[in-house]
Amino acid sequence: MMTRGDDVAEGKGYGKCILFNEHFVVYDIPSIVSAIGDYTLATVERTDSGGVRLIDDRPATPGYKEGKLEHQKDSLQRILDHMEIDPDENIKITLGGTLYCASGVGASAASCTAIARALNQFFDMGLDDDQINEVAYEGEKGYHGTPSGVDNAASTYGGLIWFVRGDEDTFEPVDMKKPVEIVMGNTGKVANTKAAVAGVKERKEKYPERYEEIFQDARQLAHDAREALEANDIQKVGDLMDVNHSLLQDIEVSDEDLDMLVETARSAGALGAKMTGGGLGGYMVALTPGEELQEKVAKAIEDKGFRVLRTKIGV
Ligand code: PMV
């Protein structure tokens, strides 16, 4: 059991944007994910009494934190158990940072990584990034049940990552020539990733042949997308994002608001657009190279009354 430590420590976890193959990744199909600049910051302080307390001061979509409270408790317990931290330690963990929490932006993974890093520093445990990633993965289980690990990988390692789940997960950096602007549009609807993942499983079992075809298309698309990203063929990347959105519609994880924001972004000139993350609400992402196009697409979404994140991939 860990008992010693500093008086205060901090840790960061980055938000993420899945560019290709959320959901498919659960079934060992390659995915491509990018960390984004916005992050969650966890601060750990010693207190006099009260055991382990969590104060959540992150900016968030209304209802997001309330909706995730039970998952968050479960997640924290898993993190403490995995790190072998005594639940009777008197510490306060405060979450803050710049990441506006909503479904689809990796908020749960960002918080797990931030907490793991802050506890690691606080208790002077000397964990490396791979071990932090393992702790964050344990924490993610509180939110997702059986997470693929794609979110915590982006949150821990940063950059643009080719991720394949397997007996041994594969993480490879995708070498993009230069960062590209994106807009992430938030439907404001808090989504339940666990339910979305369970829905796909159910339909996949019911319609095995149809789903097999869609899944094979998703597999090929991941390879094409990696090639386009590495060749800096941004138009092709955008086209493939559009195709990926159709595949996600086919497995019924998009919804009306996501489809509407995707259409809005395309009409405003985005090179491609798709839902991102668990779906059934949450965020979509539009590829908008250059600040001018980014601003145009962001405004078009804001004019419809929705919040956006202006950020970049490949940083
Ligand atoms: O909803 P998010 O942003 O946490 O993304 C979930 C991604 C899924 O592929 C749907 C699930 C997973 O564990 O990879």
On the 0 to 100 scale, the average pLDDT is 94
Topology order in helix (H) and strand (E) letters:
EEEHHEHHHEEEHHHHEEHE
Shape: globular
If you compute it from the alpha carbons, what radius of gyration comes out, rounded to the nearest whole angstrom? Answer: 19 Å
Low-pLDDT segments:
none
Instruction: Compute the separation of the termini in Å.
Output: 38 Å
CATH class of the largest domain: Alpha Beta
Number of helices: 10
Q: What can be said about the biggest beta sheet?
A: 6 strands, mixed
Which structural category fits the helices and strands? alpha+beta
Multimeric status of the protein: single chain
Kindly identify the CATH topology of the largest domain: Ribosomal Protein S5, domain 2
**At CATH's second level, what is the architecture of the largest domain?**
2-Layer Sandwich
Number of domains: 2
> What ligands does this structure carry?
(3R)-3-hydroxy-3-methyl-5-(phosphonooxy)pentanoic acid
Strand content: 15-25%
> What is the strand tally?
10
Any overview of this molecule?
This protein is an alpha+beta fold and about 325 residues long. The chain has helices spanning about 65, 70-80, 105-120, 130-145, 150-155, 195-205, 210-230, 235-250, 255-265, 290-305; strands spanning about 10-20, 30-45, 50-55, 90-95, 160-165, 170-175, 180-185, 270-275, 285, 305-315. Strands 1, 2, 3, 4, 5 and 6 form a 6-stranded mixed sheet that branches. The protein has a 4-stranded antiparallel sheet with strand order 8-9-7-10. About 50% of the residues are buried.
Helix-strand blueprint:
Layout (H helix, E strand, L loop, with lengths): L7 E13 L10 E16 L5 E5 L7 H4 L1 H14 L8 E7 L9 H16 L6 H16 L5 H8 L2 E5 L5 E4 L6 E7 L6 H14 L1 H23 L3 H17 L5 H12 L4 E5 L6 E5 L3 H13 L3 E7 L2
Parallel strand pairs: 3-4
Antiparallel strand pairs: 1-2, 2-4, 2-5, 5-6, 7-9, 7-10, 8-9
The protein binds (3R)-3-hydroxy-3-methyl-5-(phosphonooxy)pentanoic acid.
(3R)-3-hydroxy-3-methyl-5-(phosphonooxy)pentanoic acid (PMV) binds next to α5 and α6.
